[in-house]
Amino acid sequence: MKNVFSLLVLFVCLVGLSPQNDAQAQTMYEQQLLIDHFTHQNCGACSAYNPTFFNNVAAHEERIAVMSSQTSFYGLTTIYAENQAAHDARTDLYNVNGQPRVSLNGQNLTSVASTSAAVIENALNAIDAGSPYKVAINETMTGNNINIEVTVTPSMTTIDSDARIFIGLIEDLNFNTPPGSNGETFFHSVLRTLLPDVNGTPLNAMGMPTMVNATYTLPSFVDAAELRTIVVVQNNSTREVLQTFNPPGATGTNTGVETAAIVPTTRVLLKAYLEGPYNASTGMMNTALQSYLPTSQPYNSMPWNYNGNESFDMTPPANSVDWVLVEARDAAGNTIEQQAALLKNNGMLMETDGTDGVVFNALTDNESYYFVIRHRNHLAVLSRAPVLVPNSEVFDFSIAGNVSGTNQVAAVGNNTHALYAGDIDNNGVATVIDFVDYAAQTGNLNTYLQGDCDLNGSVTINDFNLYKNNASVIGIDEIRY
Ligand SMILES: [Ca+2]
Ligand SMILES: [Ca+2]
C-alpha cells in the first residue's frame, strides 16, 4: 500500500497542484499540424506548385490537418462560391493577398513553392511535445443532418485570452473536367464550413471544459463519405494554433473519439549480474532459463505484489537471463515507480522489446533517483548514490562501490560483483525459510521455480550449495520485505 499511496501523492502533486509551474508534469495530448492553404481554381501558379506540396503533406498524412480556402480575387467562382463565408474568414484571419500560400500552425504566410518537405518536417518536430488541450468528439448523423459535439479540456488554468474553438469540415474534391482555368481537377481538403459559425467559440477563461454543439445540414454538392472534421483551438488575435485534431473517420461517424495523451518516458540504463547464473570464465550469465521464462512478468505475487503488465510475445529477446523488478525511489526512500524488465546475459537490464534500459513513466527528467534491483531468488540491491535520469552512462551494480551497505554483493571473479544467490523467498535475508522453500521444490526439472538459484531450469544440489554458501547474508533494511 505504501508504494501505491506514494504514487497517488506524486500524481496529485504533479497533475493537481502545480501544473502551470511545471511544464513537464502537465498532461500533454498528441497534436496535429494545422496547415491553412490558400489557392484558387483559376491560378496558374497553384496548379504548378500544389501537387508537389500535397505529396510532401501525404508523407505525414496522419499528423497533418489541412484546411484549404479559395481566395476572393476572381469573383464568385465555383468552389469559392460554395463556401464563401468560411473561406473569407480564413483569408481575412491571415490577411491573404495572393495564392498559393500556406500557414503552418498559424505562422506567417509563405508561398507554397518555398514550403518544402524539410519545412513541413520542422513544423512537425516543433509540436512533438504535444498540446495541453484535450479534444473529444461525439458525432451523430440523421438523414442529411450531422450533429457534432466537441469538448475541449485544458490541463492548466491559464488560458489564452482570445483562444477559440473552430470546427472545420473539409472535403477532397475530384472533378472530371477542371472547374477553373488552371486545369486542376483535384482540390485537397476544401473547407466546407466553420461551425457553429466563422467566429468560433471562446474557451472557458477559468480552464473548465468548453463544449460546442453544432449541426451541419449536408448541401447537395457535398459527399458525406468524403467529409472530415477538424477541431482547431486557436488564438484569434495572434493566430497561434494551440491544438488541432482531425480524426480519420468521416464526419458524422466519430463517436467517443479523443486526442491521445502523451505518456512521458524516461529510460534508465542499469547493469547487474546475478551470482547464480554468472559464469566467471565467460564473464556472462547463462541463458539456460530462456525457454522457461513466463511471457508476463512474474512479480505479481507475495512478497512483491507488483501488478505491472510487462510481457513479450512467445519468445523473450535474445540473451535473456530472467525477469527482474526495478524500483525508483526518491531521496526520502519513497518508491516512486516500479517496472519489471528483463536481464540480458551481459548484465544490461532491458525492455521486453530487447532495447537496453528500463523505461519509467512517472519520473521527472533531470532529477535524481535511487534504484533497487530485485530478482526472485537473489538478494536485492540498492544504489549507493542517486542517479540523474535519463542517464547516458550505465549505472553499474557490478561495481561494489555503487551498491548501498556493506557486503551486499558477492565477489564473483573478474574483479566484478553480483547479487547474492539464495534468498529464495526474496524477503531480504537468507534464513532457514529459504532452505525450506528449496527443499519443497528439489528434484523438479526443466521448469521455472524460485528454488532454482543458478537459473538452469532444475532445482538440484547446486542450488542448495549456492544458498548454503550465502546463508549468513543479511540485506540492508531498505530492501527487506
Ligand atoms: Ca529469505
Ligand atoms: Ca538449478
Report on this structure:
α6 packs antiparallel against α7 (461-469). The protein starts with a helix and ends in a 12-residue tail after the last helix. Strands 20, 21, 22, 24, 25 and 26 form a six-stranded antiparallel beta sheet that branches. Strands 8, 9, 10, 12 and 13 form a five-stranded antiparallel beta sheet that branches. It folds into two domains: 27-262, Glutaredoxin; 266-479, Immunoglobulin-like. The chain is elongated, with a radius of gyration of 30 Å. It is of the alpha+beta class and 481 residues long. The chain is built from seven helices and 29 strands. Residues 1-24 have low confidence and may be disordered. One calcium ion binds next to α6.
Strand content: 25-35%
CATH class of the largest domain, anyone? Alpha Beta
Number of strands: 29
User: What CATH architecture of the largest domain would you give?
Assistant: 3-Layer(aba) Sandwich
**Which hetero compounds are present in the coordinates?**
calcium ion
* Spatial separation of the terminal alpha carbons: 13 Å
Oligomer: single chain
SSE-based structural type: alpha+beta
Main β sheet profile: 6 strands, antiparallel
Helicity, in percent? 10-25%
Average pLDDT over all residues? 94
Radius of gyration: 30 Å
Could you give the topology of this structure?
Elements: H1 2-17, E1 28-29, E2 33-39, H2 44-58, E3 64-70, H3 78-82, H4 84-93, E4 101-104, E5 110-111, H5 117-125, E6 133-142, E7 145-154, E8 163-174, E9 186-195, E10 201-202, E11 210-217, E12 227-235, E13 241-245, E14 255-258, E15 261-262, E16 266-268, E17 270-271, E18 278-279, E19 284-285, E20 320-329, E21 335-344, E22 349-350, E23 358-360, E24 367-375, E25 378-382, E26 387-389, E27 395-396, E28 409-411, E29 417-419, H6 432-441, H7 461-469
Parallel strand pairs: 2-3, 17-27
Antiparallel strand pairs: 1-15, 2-4, 4-5, 6-7, 6-14, 7-11, 8-9, 8-10, 8-12, 12-13, 16-23, 18-19, 20-21, 20-24, 21-22, 24-25, 24-26, 28-29
The structure holds calcium ion (CA) (2 copies).
